[in-house]
Amino acid sequence: MSLTAAQRANLAWANRPPGPQAMWSALGSATRALGQAMDKLGIALEGDAAYIEKLPIPTTVVKIDGKAPSIGEASFVAPSANLIGAVQLGPGASAWYGALLKGDTKPVSVGKLSSVGEHASVTYPLPYPYLYPYPYPCPYPYPYPYPNPCPYPHLYP
């Protein structure tokens, strides 16, 4: 059941933090300034041994046609992985660095404790509708569903 615009506005109004918006904005700015000052102090104290960490490219989670990715508990999604559309990661599953899981045309499901490796692309259409289980080569007839757990999935025969 979807909400009307008036219902969404009332819900947003009811869930707002107490006090004026300007107060929360000022508090956020002051907290950020304090954090930046502490970071600069730490760098000054470390001197030549200081390590300045650059933030990685954030994980992209994109909702398409009302279908948003679903990430199970204890799952790992690398900062540079991309999950687009109807993607479901099972409990303990992982999407590693540079991985693309694209469920824009059909749903993509990664089973419990399974892993999608670095720079792997899981999209449709695939030559086979499923990924293959470990050990490789697949001893099962094709197509075979992506098992639980599958530590080393392979996309192609």
Explain what this protein looks like in three dimensions.
This protein is an alpha/beta fold. It has a domain at 54-157: Hexapeptide repeat proteins (UDP N-Acetylglucosamine Acyltransferase, domain 1), CATH 2.160.10. The protein is built from two helices and eight strands; from the N terminus they run H-H-E-E-E-E-E-E-E-E.
List keywords for this structure.
disordered C terminus, about 160 residues, 5-stranded parallel beta sheet, UDP N-Acetylglucosamine Acyltransferase, domain 1
Fraction of residues in β-strands: 15-25%
Mind telling me which CATH architecture of one domain this is? Answer: 3 Solenoid
User: What name goes with the CATH superfamily of one domain?
Assistant: Hexapeptide repeat proteins
Query: Would you tell me which CATH topology of one domain applies?
Result: UDP N-Acetylglucosamine Acyltransferase, domain 1
Number of helices: 2
Short description:
With 157 residues, the chain is of the alpha/beta class. Helix content is 23%, strand content 20%.
